[in-house]
Amino acid sequence: MRHLLSMADLDRDDIERLLNLADSFAEVGERQIPKVPALRGKTIAWLFYEDSTRTRLSFETAAKRLSADTMNFSVSSSSVNKGESLRDTVETVAAMGIDGIVVRHHGAGAPHRIAEWTDASVVNAGDGWHQHPTQSLLDLYTATRRLGSLDGRRIAIVGDIKHSRVARSNAIGFATMGAEVTFVGPQTLLPPSLEGWPVKVTHDLDEVIDEVDICYLLRMQLERQEQAVVPTLREFHEEYGLTTARADRLREDALIMHPGPMNRGVEIAGEVADRPNAVITEQVTNGIAVRMAVLYLLLGSGLDLVDTREAVA
Question: What whole-number distance in Å separates Cα of residue 11 and Cα of residue 155?
Answer without folding.
Answer: 19
